[in-house]
Amino acid sequence: MSVYNYPKPGLFNVGSYQTSGEPWLTGSTTLVPGAEDHHQFPRTAKSVTVINTDASNDDIRVHFNASSAGNVITGLHFVALNNLNESISFGVRCREIFISAPATNAGNASYTVVAELTNIDGLLMGTLTGSGLTD
Description:
The protein has 135 residues and is mostly beta strands.
C-alpha cells in the first residue's frame, strides 16, 4: 500500500489559496479618534474585507502597517472608508491589518473585519513594507 504525502501548506502552495478559506471575523465599536487597532490573523489570510459600521459616519483608515511605520498616513498609504456600510475588499495574502481613526473624528468609530484564512502559518508571511505601503 502506498502512502500519498500531501504538500505542506505554504506561501507558494497553490492549493492553499484555491480551497475555500476559513472565516475570521472581528470588529470594534470603540475606536477612539487618533487611535489605531491592530488585527493579527492566526494564519495567513487570502482576502480581507473591512466595513465601516459607524452610523454617525466617522472615518476609518485601513492599512497594512502601523501608522507609525514610515509614511503610512502622510504618504496616503491607506484606504479611507467615510460612510456607513462603505467597504473595501483586498484579495491579498497578509498576516495582519491595521484600522485607524483620524483625530478629527467626532466620536468613536466602529467597523467590522472579515478575513478568509488559509492553512498557511502566519509566521511564514513576512511584514508587508516598501513602496505604496510604508514609503
